[in-house]
Amino acid sequence: MQFPNNQRIGNWCYRFCMIENHMSKFLSQSTRRFLKEARQTEGYSLFDFLHGYVYARWPYLYIGIGTGEHPISKTLKPILNGFARLFDYLPSNNQDFDINTGDENKVAFADTYHGKVVPLKLAEQLVTIEQDIILPDLEHVIPYKQARDIVLQDPDHIIALKCPCRSSRPDPCLPLDVCLIVGEPFAEFILEHHPQKARSISSSEAVTLLKQEHERGHVHHAFFKDAMFGRFYAICNCCSCCCGAMQAHRNGTPMLSSSGYIVSVENSICIGCGTCEENCQFGAIQICADIAVVDIDACMGCGVCEEKCEQGALSLNRDYSKPEPLVLSELIAAQKA
């Protein structure tokens, strides 16, 4: 495990590791597996481990503070930011860290924690894979400076978790248990530490859950996070009223990446009923002169509107100005070629 360069902090981190070695027998099985994975992940620092552990161990507190819904969020946010600065935390490439984007030499918050929009069929691929896979550095698909690997170990280990974003809201969308944690060491850790809020499900049950959320008009996001070993770990089924990432995206932090598709309108078929406008989670469609008009910059290609259109006037098409779609089958085939 790598640690910050500061010698004093590095010495303290060394002592931490020595203590951890002696205490390993007192750690839960899932925590030991999480720690083992941390040690095997290149560039993964002590701060990353602590961050990842807190995020996975107390996700409802973490997300509640992040969304501003938790009562202590105003007090605790500055303290946590100060803690990060105390450790002189930098991402693994040692670039400057900034909450905002704009400077190409700086790593933005969105580079460390983000979601890739995936239409239903592509989301289904992520929960039906039958083999361990390692797909590193998918920058052409996940267009961020960090956290862009897909490493699936025991991908049939899937957990349905009560959504921390929805759970933090006073009047959330239902049902709550719609977040899918995929593969190890994440699934075991979440199930062991949140037995009242998580349940193990099969791949077929995960597909059913995805279809149900799609019918509700919710968007599938494949989430990646630096503190979760810089890789894919979950599929969240998101609504704009509850989702913290969609909230941040609307407020200028580009945490979400396009699916690589964009919706097109067949004007000769569209009747201007407004169903697509009502169901678009990204506010990308408006009815003008009785025709649906798509804001191509705002459209994330989720496919919700296409499903909702009873006239069949909408279709998803590849937009080559946007990042490539996350088509797992094609990525695996390309790796084998």
Quick rundown:
The chain has helices at 7-23, 29-40, 46-57, 59-67, 73-86, 109-112, 120-126, 164-168, 186-193, 203-215, 244-250, 275-279, 304-308, 328-336, and strands at 96-98, 106-108, 113-117, 133-135, 150-162, 177-184, 198-201, 219-225, 231-238, 256-257, 261-265, 285-288, 291-294, 314-318. It has 337 residues and is an alpha+beta fold.
Structural description of this entry:
It is built from 14 helices and 14 strands. With 337 residues, it is α+β, with helices and mostly antiparallel strands. The protein has 2 domains: 263 residues, no CATH class; 58 residues, Alpha-Beta Plaits (2-Layer Sandwich). Strands 3, 4, 5, 6, 7, 8, 9 and 10 form an 8-stranded mixed sheet that branches. Strands 1-2 form a two-stranded parallel sheet. It is globular, with a radius of gyration of 20 Å.
Helix/strand layout:
Elements: H1 7-23, H2 29-40, H3 46-57, H4 59-67, H5 73-86, E1 96-98, E2 106-108, H6 109-112, E3 113-117, H7 120-126, E4 133-135, E5 150-162, H8 164-168, E6 177-184, H9 186-193, E7 198-201, H10 203-215, E8 219-225, E9 231-238, H11 244-250, E10 256-257, E11 261-265, H12 275-279, E12 285-288, E13 291-294, H13 304-308, E14 314-318, H14 328-336
Parallel strand pairs: 1-2, 3-10
Antiparallel strand pairs: 3-8, 4-5, 5-6, 5-7, 6-9, 8-9, 11-14, 12-13
Helix pairs in contact: 2-9, 4-5
